[in-house]
């Protein structure tokens, strides 16, 4: 078998890690490639689901004795603690791995420190190979672990002139079926979907991840979160059905801000404690504006339909911007056509 470079192997490990996106939380996505002493790939693995074997364990099992004296390429620093599974550091040492190449250090204070343990056992450890790519592939988990609240994606749908509904309130459907199917795919990658009580009262959404063609529910459903300061969510609302778990976040339960509404920072901290590492904000323009004004949005995904309404509610309101100098600047990272619509992906620019 032909040998590959460590750089090529890391690229493959990053691709493997992506296969676990949406099923591993609250754990990270991780990929691993084992090279034998000649540099040939003898084992591959990725973390598929929380509680299941880690990427290193899967790859080592595939490699068997061929791993001895070889190199492990891992997107995230191997864990060094015993949880539902044993420490990957010990498995690598016992397998006789000579060298470990790490993409990103583990920021988790409970599981981190793997590189130190490996070095203490005489294993050579190199860090930083394709670090930016490994970071991007695991951005939600890494961000949430570093700061203590979920990585938040604001998703919206609008016409070309920025309207989220017509004057009479109708909004079904601004975007195409292809775009809506893409949204359901996005829902399948996060741990929670957040809306305001106004959206529940107006639209009575289900907020599940499903196949729009036949209505089949995805195996894993995100937590449905309703930001409902005064507890107005109807008992018969669709978000209260048994299709997925639901959290009605009231000011009394989560904490209130100076206006008596749900404290959004406290809400995100609460969700993090519940194992939410990535959340999708699908609420209306006012809730989106409040999250943006508080600086809590990490990514924006906008589906823009080639339609014009001229009047009607805007896609965003109350973001704390009163003059052009205060505009929330974004950096576009992707523009993709989805059916007849365009999907824009952007991240807020850092101030200063």
Automatic annotation (TrEMBL):
**Does the keyword Cell membrane belong to this entry?**
no
* PROSITE patterns assigned: CYT_DCMP_DEAMINASES_1, CYT_DCMP_DEAMINASES_2
Q: In which pathway does it act?
A: Cofactor biosynthesis; riboflavin biosynthesis; 5-amino-6-(D-ribitylamino)uracil from GTP: step 2/4; Cofactor biosynthesis; riboflavin biosynthesis; 5-amino-6-(D-ribitylamino)uracil from GTP: step 3/4
- Catalyzed chemical reaction(s): 5-amino-6-(5-phospho-D-ribitylamino)uracil + NADP(+) = 5-amino-6-(5-phospho-D-ribosylamino)uracil + NADPH + H(+); 2,5-diamino-6-hydroxy-4-(5-phosphoribosylamino)-pyrimidine + H2O + H(+) = 5-amino-6-(5-phospho-D-ribosylamino)uracil + NH4(+)
Q: Which UniProt keywords apply?
A: Hydrolase, Metal-binding, Multifunctional enzyme, NADP, Oxidoreductase, Riboflavin biosynthesis, Zinc
All residue ranges annotated as the CMP/dCMP-type deaminase domain in the record:
4-126
Q: Which cofactor does it need?
A: Zn(2+)
**EC code(s) of this entry:** 3.5.4.26, 1.1.1.193
Cofactor remark: Binds 1 zinc ion.
Q: Which domain of life is it from?
A: Bacteria
Among NCBIfam families, the record links this protein to: eubact_ribD, ribD_Cterm
Function in brief: Converts 2,5-diamino-6-(ribosylamino)-4(3h)-pyrimidinone 5'-phosphate into 5-amino-6-(ribosylamino)-2,4(1h,3h)-pyrimidinedione 5'-phosphate.
The family assignment reads: In the N-terminal section; belongs to the cytidine and deoxycytidylate deaminase family.
Supply the name of the protein: Riboflavin biosynthesis protein RibD
What species is given as this protein's source?
A: Phytohabitans aurantiacus
Q: What gene name is listed for this protein?
A: ribD
């Amino acid at each position: 078998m032909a040998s590959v470079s460590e750089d090529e192997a890391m690229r493959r490990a990053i691709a493997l890690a992506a296969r676990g996106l949406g099923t591993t939380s609250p754990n990270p996505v991780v990929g691993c490639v084992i090279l034998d002493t000649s540099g040939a790939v003898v084992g591959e693995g990725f973390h598929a689901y929380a509680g299941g074997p880690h990427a290193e364990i899967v790859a080592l099992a595939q490699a068997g004795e061929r791993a001895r004296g070889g190199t492990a390429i891992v997107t995230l620093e191997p864990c060094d603690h015993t949880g539902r599974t044993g420490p990957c550091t010990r498995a690598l040492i016992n397998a006789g791995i000579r060298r470990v190449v790490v993409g990103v250090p583990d920021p988790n204070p409970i599981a981190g420190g793997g590189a130190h343990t490996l070095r203490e056992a005489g294993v050579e450890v190199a860090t930083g190979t394709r670090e930016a790519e490994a970071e991007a592939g695991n951005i939600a988990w890494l961000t949430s672990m570093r700061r203590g609240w979920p990585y938040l994606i604001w998703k919206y749908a609008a016409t070309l002139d920025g309207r989220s509904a017509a004057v009479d309130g109708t909004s079904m459907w601004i975007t195409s079926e292809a775009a809506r199917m893409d949204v359901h795919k996005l829902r399948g990658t996060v741990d929670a979907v957040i809306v305001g009580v106004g959206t529940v009262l107006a639209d009575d959404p289900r907020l599940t991840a499903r196949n729009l063609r036949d209505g089949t529910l995805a195996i894993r459903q995100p937590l449905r979160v309703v930001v409902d300061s005064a507890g107005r969510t109807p008992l018969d609302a669709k978000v209260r059905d048994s299709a997925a778990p639901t959290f009605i976040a009231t000011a009394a339960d989560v904490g209130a801000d100076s206006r008596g509404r749900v404290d959004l920072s406290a809400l995100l901290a609460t969700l993090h404690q519940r194992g939410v590492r990535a959340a999708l904000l699908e609420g209306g323009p006012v809730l989106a504006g409040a999250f943006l004004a508080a600086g809590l949005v990490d990514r924006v995904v906008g589906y823009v339909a080639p339609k014009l309404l001229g009047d009607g509610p805007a896609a965003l309101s109350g973001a704390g911007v009163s003059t052009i100098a205060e505009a929330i600047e974004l950096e576009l990272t992707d523009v993709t056509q989805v059916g007849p619509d365009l999907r824009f992906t952007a991240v807020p620019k850092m101030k200063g």
